[in-house]
Specification:
With about 600 residues, the chain is mainly β. The chain has a single domain (about 65-605), classed as Methanol Dehydrogenase, Chain A. It is about 0% helix and about 35% strand. The strands form 13 sheets. The chain has a five-stranded mixed β-sheet with strand order 1-38-39-40-41, with no helix packed on it. The longest helix is centred in the last third of the chain and has 5 residues, at about 600-605. About 55% of the residues are buried. Residues about 1-40 have low confidence and may be disordered.
């Protein structure tokens, strides 16, 4: 199959692309990337910002830390003085934009896409629109889902900003390359249509792009959770993928497909569960990749996690499980070729879709226990020897550490495996979060090279016999890199009333989950909360609360750059219009807010001039 034809042609801009130097060094001395000059006669390669103050992608760096190691303006001593410097659109503006789930910041300029009213924006350092891009093929669509939940449009992760191009993925399966200075489309690839190899009509891209081996690395896969619940559906046929693209053409360099190709099940497989049964004629639909991958330049390796199956595999006498080893797993592949290095499954036999309960009473297993958190790369002592490892959170509520070379599990935090009951019994006090279809550790855990910082969502009964109970808790926890010690935990206080009216709220005494990505900078951990809707700053040494700012509906992780904290607002997750989920305050409109210290600072001096 031929690679996709690019839309638009790249023309070099003189003086823009610089050499890539090390953009992050954590305490363990890992470099995020290495700069190489382009050999004579070869195509130019993409370059990241030379300035380590920038936050040019979802995790800030390719090793997944979500840590800005050079921030010095904001600190635990002054962060309580944070004030709003600007917001876009301004409070008094009639302009509206869609929900903002993630932002990137380079040279004081802010880049983001919107889930609803889909568009990609570039803002100047003082919060004015430099440019915006809307796909003309998507005009008139507000984003969201159609039919049985297939995403139709919208951007739900941060763009990758290189020296001259902005790359971003869309939940409707397209990948865009936009000119960084004009917003003009350079090329677009639709992973739902040929000639993209293995194109599937349900493909989607939730992850943020990264740069690896000079290529643009994007992960995605088929979103068939809702279509599998349709009684007319006979089984799912999609699977996850990671693809490497030439930065200036969009040409596919290599593509890794997760697990075996789905096909007819002979005989068909019937799954009987607490809500009934369903017979599947196609499978296995192997785990899509929701997380942003990480990249180890030293060993030429990409690491990522996968989702569960929506349809089962064919069971056999030798292997009676309904899942392949690639579902709910952490995977390492060669970043030069896409060849598989190792696969370590965390949650076996996990087949789930919207038509299945979130807990299997027969096996005692929670379902949909996927890995959406980026595997972070760092070094610890294993058996007395310095060993490179990757660590990531899982929706089962555990944080796992793997040997980077082999995939062997080195350690993990306690997992709750009891039945869904309220209150749960026998929970280990070191459990980070409770499992569920939208619980546990979703995405965006962080490390500063000294500790791991995890978020957490407790909503144990969702999708089970407990029904629509609101979340019961949320927290941020600091752990030693080897997970042996817990440094502190910040437990979010209950929210007295949510939903309904002040006189008659729909829910009371509601837990306050932390589902957003955590940002670490200069001894401060920043995150947002999804019920109280606050931006929170904690002291990374003690867990002491330093500052809280009310935002309104939000499900966006903050980023820190040049003495500013940036965060997007708006939220339609997880069930827009469902009154039973009123405990997650909703808004179809969003904003981007920049917080800093009072008075003039580095960013305000940049103004609205051109780069």
């Amino acid at each position: 199959m031929n690679p996709p034809s690019p839309v638009g042609t790249w023309k070099p801009r003189s003086g823009i692309a610089g050499t890539l130097r090390t953009c992050l060094t954590v305490a363990i001395g890992l470099a995020t990337a290495f700069a190489l000059a382009d050999p004579p006669g070869e195509k130019p390669s993409a370059r990241l910002s030379e300035d380590p103050h920038d936050w040019p992608m979802y995790n800030r760096d390719v090793i997944g830390t979500r840590h800005n190691p050079v921030e010095r303006t904001l600190s635990r001593d002054n962060v309580q003085n944070l004030v709003e410097k600007w917001r876009f659109p301004p409070r008094d503006s009639e302009q509206r934009i869609g929900v903002v789930h993630a932002v990137s910041v380079v040279n004081g300029y802010v880049y983001f896409g919107t889930e609803t009213m889909p568009a990609v924006y570039k803002l100047t350092p003082d919060g004015k629109v430099k440019w915006s891009y809307s796909d003309p093929e998507r005009q008139g669509r507000r984003g969201g889902s159609q039919g049985f939940g297939l995403p139709t449009n919208g951007f739900m992760n941060a763009p990758l900003v290189t020296a001259d191009t902005v790359y971003i993925g869309e939940v409707a399966g397209s990948i865009y390359a936009l000119d960084r200075f004009t917003g003009h489309l350079r090329w677009k690839i639709d992973t739902r249509k040929e000639p993209f190899p293995g194109a599937h009509p349900a493909n989607t891209v939730f992850s943020g792009p990264i740069l690896g081996e000079g290529n643009i690395i994007v992960a995605g896969g088929a979103f068939e959770h809702a279509s599998a619940a349709d009684p007319r559906n006979r089984g799912c046929t999609g699977r996850g993928f990671v693809v490497a693209l030439e930065p200036y053409t969009g040409k596919v360099v290599w593509k890794y497909d997760v697990g075996p190709e789905p096909g007819p099940l002979d005989p068909p497989v019937t799954i009987t569960h607490d809500w009934g049964s369903k017979t599947y004629h196609f499978g296995p639909s192997t785990g899509s990749v929701w997380c942003t991958p990480s990249f180890d330049a030293e060993t030429h390796t990409l690491f990522f996690g996968t989702d569960c199956h929506n349809s089962p595999k064919q069971p056999t006498k030798d292997d009676p499980l309904l899942s392949t080893k690639h579902s709910c797993a952490v995977i390492a592949i060669d970043s030069r070729t896409g060849a598989e290095k190792w696969v370590t499954q965390i949650n076996p036999d996990d087949v789930w879709n919207y038509g299945l309960p979130g807990y299997d009473s027969k096996t005692g297993r929670y379902k949909d226990q996927s890995i959406g958190d980026t595997p972070k790369i760092y070094t610890i002592a294993v058996d007395g020897k310095p060993t490179k490892v990757v660590g990531c959170g899982c929706k089962n509520g555990g944080f796992y550490v793997f040997e980077a070379a082999t995939g062997k599990i080195v350690a993990h935090t306690p997992i709750y495996t009891g039945p869904p009951q309220h209150p749960p019994r026998g929970v280990d006090p070191r459990t980070l979060a409770l499992p569920s279809v939208i619980g546990g550790l979703q995405t965006g855990c962080a490390t500063d090279g000294r500790a791991i910082y995890t978020n957490g969502i407790d909503i144990l009964g969702l999708g089970t016999s407990l029904g629509y109970r609101p979340p019961t808790g949320g927290r941020v926890v600091s752990l030693s890199l080897d997970l042996r010690a817990e440094n502190w935990r910040h437990e979010r206080p209950k929210v007295p009333a949510v939903g309904g009216t002040r006189e008659k709220p729909m829910y009371t005494d509601v837990g306050d989950p932390v589902g957003s990505g955590i940002a670490i900078a200069n001894g401060v951990a920043y995150f947002t909360t999804t019920v109280s809707n606050r931006l929170v700053a904690l002291d990374t040494a003690s867990g002491r609360s330093l500052k809280e700012i009310e935002l309104g509906p939000v499900w966006c992780g903050p980023v820190v750059s040049r003495g500013r904290v940036y965060v997007g607002t708006g939220n339609l997750l997880f069930s827009p219009g469902n009154p039973l989920e009123a405990y997650f305050p909703k808004s179809q409109y969003g904003s981007v807010i920049s917080f800093g210290l009072p008075g003039e600072d580095e960013v305000s001096r940049m103004g609205s001039g051109s780069e």
